[in-house]
Amino acid sequence: MTAEIHRLKGAAPSLDPIMRLVASDMNAVNAVILDRMQSQIPLIPELAGHLISGGGKRLRPMITLAAARLLDYPGTRQHKLAAAVEFIHTATLLHDDVVDGSDMRRGKRTANIIWGNPASVLVGDFLFSRAFELMVEDGSLKVLKILSNASAVIAEGEVDQLTAQRQVSTSEDKYLAIIGAKTAALFAAAARIAAVIAEREGEVEDALDAYGRNLGIAFQLVDDAIDYVSDEATMGKGVGDDFRDGKVTLPVILAYARGSAEERAFWHDAMMGRRISDDDLSHATALLAKHNGIADTLEHARHYGQRAIDALGIFPAGVAKAALVEAAEFAVSRAY
Amino acid sequence: MTAEIHRLKGAAPSLDPIMRLVASDMNAVNAVILDRMQSQIPLIPELAGHLISGGGKRLRPMITLAAARLLDYPGTRQHKLAAAVEFIHTATLLHDDVVDGSDMRRGKRTANIIWGNPASVLVGDFLFSRAFELMVEDGSLKVLKILSNASAVIAEGEVDQLTAQRQVSTSEDKYLAIIGAKTAALFAAAARIAAVIAEREGEVEDALDAYGRNLGIAFQLVDDAIDYVSDEATMGKGVGDDFRDGKVTLPVILAYARGSAEERAFWHDAMMGRRISDDDLSHATALLAKHNGIADTLEHARHYGQRAIDALGIFPAGVAKAALVEAAEFAVSRAY
């Protein structure tokens, strides 16, 4: 709990320190993003801007920027690369919302609802291509390798999740593999590339990768928990969305593994979309409580959050390290 | 008409010479494709293989390979890069079929019909990422720049086409800009990268780009014409598909521009999807005949095919040049 010395005792961890740390860098990243999402085809910046300026926290580029600060990297290469990371993330969000048929994200209607699936697919492709153009301009084959590999892994994770859809017997290990690919791979890459541009390869690169990867898993697990406890006002999407979509997340996996035959039959029917009324959701929530599905998911998240923090052990204390540590504490404290 | 000396007088131009020229290289490319479309997630090679082994002509990688032969390039880098080009093409086909809601391609049911839109979107993303991984392995930033730029241009062209959908007043220039982006950019890049690996930049690179770009436009225009005259047995899709989908292609643009007010009203209604019966298609075909819509589209295609051939003027005569010339002749003679 290194970061506690940097804030008032008992104050909740927040993203404020990391946001302050990278504020000027983030302005530069936002300028790159705004510039590079332009196109002679007006629909492209219109649709991309809806999502990009739509209240996202820019977590992944923030990690690239903070990691560059941690390493005292003196240059500006992180700006284009952080923008590339955000473009890859935005492209996957656009495609995810098509894949899931989502209608709300970050409290707004999704692009696929406003402009249709075809436009979302194609603008996602455009942003993905632009991400690679930015990396090519930067000129590091190593960065290109890290991010093209992460992109392939993300797509594999998404397909894996699609295959596992509604399969209530998905194992915990399988689920961790899926979120390790679809969510954590980009966090890991976002952190790792900072080591490459700072020419601190080897141990430093691996440590940053581990920080990003564990943080990404922690974030995803907390998201999965929040889906059963939050409301639309705080999350920008409704409680129980995952339940109604038949998404087999860790809370469900734990409750299913620990449940009676009768409970398992309920979960099976629910994930198949046959029991998704409000009453069913209440029943699901009761089962999750009975088996500690939410509490243990958050406990797992804390485990990964702590691993993220411990991965930073090799770095000297300082403002950047404290901000990264507090970001991990924030990740796992959001739902409390 | 350089190539005529290589075939019997009067024989129809064919792809046989270029296929013979690159046969051994294409085996190497196919091995890369098969190897790199693998994944631990079984759905990925299953879905990708359906399209990749589904009877496509591998035109774009063929052009990379033939251009490398034209330049007497002695190495093997073209194999991975040609596979990358085919992966980008396959990814765009998967996404196109989702965007268009297509149900048939190359005489088979489309992947989106068999496995659903979500899987097609995600496997497309996977192949696109794999394409970049292959390019990164090759290690040329210049090749990466050419192909990432082409990918962004393709996506822009697709979005532009989406915006122009059902707009019967689309101008000929606008249409040429769309197909220049969505189709010809990848042909141009496929040819251009051969110059990069053969270290023949400048004039040679520009000549190959021009060959590919003009050939791509010619191919697309002939495809547009064939859609109104062919049958499912030869094309793998039904006659009039573009008509029923409201796709405003050059034959329609010409007939609309040359038509009476009454005819224009018909085209408008047809492209809006309100007159797409078999009788309507017969009427459309009659209007195309009256205004030379098909004949002049093919004439335009021949113009671009000739420009492709002329772009090769700087290269010495030989088997490779003759094969590339005959490929362009084939492109514009398919519909006769």
Structure described in brief:
Two copies of one chain form a homodimer. The first copy, chain A, is mainly α and 336 residues long.
Can you characterise this structure?
The structure is a homodimer of 336-residue chains. Chain A is mainly alpha-helical and 336 residues long. The first copy, chain A, has one domain: Orthogonal Bundle (Farnesyl Diphosphate Synthase), CATH 1.10.600.10. Chain A is 72% helix and 1% strand. Chain A has helices spanning 16-21, 23-36, 43-52, 59-70, 77-100, 111-115, 117-138, 141-164, 172-197, 203-226, 232-235, 241-244, 250-258, 261-271, 278-290, 293-311, 319-333, and strands at residues 104-105, 108-109. Chain A has a two-stranded antiparallel sheet with strand order 1-2. In chain A, helix 5 (77-100) packs parallel to helix 8 (141-164). The two termini of chain A are 17 Å apart.
CATH superfamily of chain A: Farnesyl Diphosphate Synthase
Which protein chains make the most extensive interface, counting residues with beta carbons within 8 Å of the other chain's beta carbons? Answer: A-B, 43 and 43 residues
CATH A-level architecture of chain A:
Orthogonal Bundle
- The fraction of residues assigned to DSSP E strands of chain A is under 5%
Which quaternary structure do these chains form?
A: homodimer
Q: Biggest sheet of chain A: strands side by side, in what order?
A: 1-2
Number of helices of chain A: 17
Q: What's the CATH class label of chain A?
A: Mainly Alpha
Number of domains of chain A: 1
The major β-sheet of chain A equals: 2 strands, antiparallel
The percent of residues in helical segments of chain A reads: over 70%
Number of strands of chain A: 2
- Amino-to-carboxy terminus distance of chain A: 17 Å
